[in-house]
Amino acid sequence: MARQLDEQIAGRFAVGRRLRVLDVGMGQGTQALRLARAGHQVTGVERDATMIAAAREALAGQPEGIRDRMRIVEGDGRDTGVHFLPGSFDVVLCHGVLMYVEEPDPLLAGLARMLAPGGLLSLVVRNGDALALRPGMQGDWAGALASFDTTNYRNRLGLDVRADRLSTLTAKLAGIGAPLHTWYGVRVFTDTAPDGTMPPDDLDALLAAEERAGRTDPYRSVAALLHLCGVRG
């Protein structure tokens, strides 16, 4: 996903430009820190105290220049309008968040409002068109059959959450003024790997295969996650 995001940033903005980045639901700050290290001015929004503590600890271990480029805001992603003016950011990230939001439309509209004209919106969501694949690959036939006609599922944390279909999100992005520019699959081959699995010796080859599959039909359409990139008109 990081490679996909970098590709979109490189294709849309001038080399060396320091971008204003908003990471909504930043978690422990992995992507926010990565982009701050790349020279961008990053604001991370997170409401979970444990995640905020982890992000602040990680940030504290960075050189001063990187610490100065990253700001952490404690808050809900649905309240971006409370904290920021419309059009304040060149790039807005919302990765792994929509599945926890029962009604995502207000959140998506708020994210789009944060973008400057020509800005990039990056979403990572659970693929609602491929929910049967994981249970099917694991031999859970009843679970696979039950997954065909729903966008609800239970994640690996044991939480009941929801997925999004590509067609539905394409329509929503058009409706909020940030139409879909391109999309990728994420975790095409590795979704069924058990949690805690150690990286293989040929990790570079694995990443190359995942990256290729994530941009190639029909593989990307059955990925566990979708990475959608919209552009503010």
UniProtKB/TrEMBL annotation:
Record GO terms (molecular function) = methyltransferase activity
Q: Which GO terms describe its biological process?
A: methylation
Q: Which Pfam families does this chain map to?
A: Methyltransf_11
Q: Which domain of life is it from?
A: Bacteria
Keywords, alphabetical: Methyltransferase, Transferase
The record's listing under InterPro entries reads: Methyltransf_11 (IPR013216), SAM-dependent_MTases_sf (IPR029063)
Q: In this protein, which residues make up the domain named Methyltransferase type?
A: 22-122
Q: What name does the UniProt record give this protein?
A: Methyltransferase domain-containing protein
